[in-house]
């Protein structure tokens, strides 16, 4: 008996440890980011870092302005959101409300499959198919543009948006829908006026999480956005994102140099952006409950 | 159940020294993407001749290789640029004395799409193009088309060399930078592919990557000089204006396997491989 109790105790504590581990690691990572990243502000003011217009990290003296990178990330994300939100939410509505069971199953596994494609593969496919298409379609000097990145990233955001939005639609109480239909509303009226508003907070959370995935994505954008650190004036020009900058330059940065610290500071900026997005998504999710 | 784990644990413990011992006849080489193919060929040939020794080669860029050498995670760093003062100092702090060995030469080819009418440029024009002063092909004798600049990422020795020797023309106090509109691609192959598929591009990389899908430009030091094509003969004779040495960096003077491998690279066999991989041999 006492052995059983002891076992129970050990297992309980082990599970507690596992539970705490994730928080512990997040805190450790954040502290490490702060420690390495804040060091850059000994040589450059936060204002100049965030709003400086040129990024020449290995010149003497280094110019470490990340405004073009922030704008690049935001532009690609905005483009991806504009493409993926209507399609993703529409897809969720179709799966949850309209599709017959058989099609529903096929669609759901298709979307899971889309989520499983590694981003480097998407990037590669984008590079050989989408980039030349964008170039010829808009008569651009190069197809490596923010738009190409947005389109490819929209594919990556969609699975997240569809599956969470679909969950939200499912959890709307059945009697809402039945009530609306009984009152003589058409199916479309029911979806538009009753189901979507009732599930709105869940759908917003889905969108936020989808966007969170897009802004943190690295490999695909690095391969197809051209990585030029200029302030973008349209969606048809090359951009350089925060994530691609870290990935491309971390290998070179001499450990302990200004450049190295600046890359960690970019990490802090990214961390703050995705933290804000996740918190917003969380707020929406809790509001629903 | 418990016993089984104990047995596995014991096996792992017993095996650990065996793995550690194995490390003595294996070395890690890391760095310049330009040199990866070359070092890989060297390693293959060397391992063929010396079975039992193991040489692992990885790329990542010259900077990546040098910072690995400094942090002690590789034995030899390949670099297509000289080590920087800052890096030497940093290495010293960590107890590592960088030792430079010149192993080959490389001509830096400037390439355009074969359909481009331009087939020769001066260094001055090149600097103008890559700094963004010249933006249209018609300014250098081509058709009316915007120039699309392709560059390597900043972790590339090729990027640094091109900036210092073409954009700044070797002036250490130069302030010229790549135009911020230049596209930064992550590998020489990516530049080769983009040049092959886009008629308004211009890019640069080691001569080893030249293929019939790109056109390598003839380059002249200034308007009065002769335009020279990037060929092995022209690099050896020193007539081609943009060529550079390729280095291997070790910790202190090489010893043991590192020395054996270095000697092999500089031997006749090693330098024959240099020619085979489209670089230029150094021991002539």
Notes on the structure:
The complex is a heterodimer of chains A (289) and B (284). Chain A has helices at 2-37, 46-51, 67-98, 101-116, 119-137, 146-170, 174-182, 187-198, 200-216, 219-224, 242-249, 258-288, and strands at residues 55-56, 63-64. Chain A is 75% helix and 1% strand. With 289 residues, chain A is mostly helical. The radius of gyration of chain A is 23 Å and the shape is globular. Mean pLDDT of chain B is 85; it is low at 12-22. In chain B, helix 2 links the parallel strand 1 (26-31) and strand 2 (54-58). The chains are: A mainly alpha (289), B alpha/beta (284). Chain A binds chain B through residues 54-59, 68, 132, 135, 141-144, 222-223, 226-230, 238, 240, 248-249, 251-257, and chain B through 60-64, 66-67, 70-71, 84, 86-87, 90, 145-148, 153-155, 160, 177, 180-186, 194, 197-198, 200-201.
Helix % of chain A is over 70%
- Count of individual helical segments of chain A: 12
Count all strands of chain A and give the number. Answer: 2
The succession of helices and strands of chain A, N to C, reads HHEEHHHHHHHHHH
Largest sheet of chain B: 9 strands, mixed
What is the spatial order of strands in the main beta sheet of chain A?
1-2
Query: What is the CA-based Rg of chain B, rounded?
Result: 22 Å
So what's the oligomer here? heterodimer
SS field, number of helical segments of chain B: 10
Give the rounded overall mean pLDDT of chain B: 85
Major pleated sheet of chain A? 2 strands, antiparallel
**Sheet/helix structural class of chain B:** alpha/beta
Write down the overall mean pLDDT of chain A. Answer: 90
The helix content of chain B, as a percent range, equals 25-40%
Helix/strand structural class of chain A: mainly alpha
Whole-Å distance between the termini of chain A?
Answer: 41 Å
Ranges of chain B where pLDDT stays below 50 over 5 or more residues in a row are: 12-22
Unreliable segments of chain A (pLDDT under 50, ≥5 consecutive)?
none
Please write the string of helix (H) and strand (E) elements of chain B: HEHEHEHEEHEHEHEEEHEHH
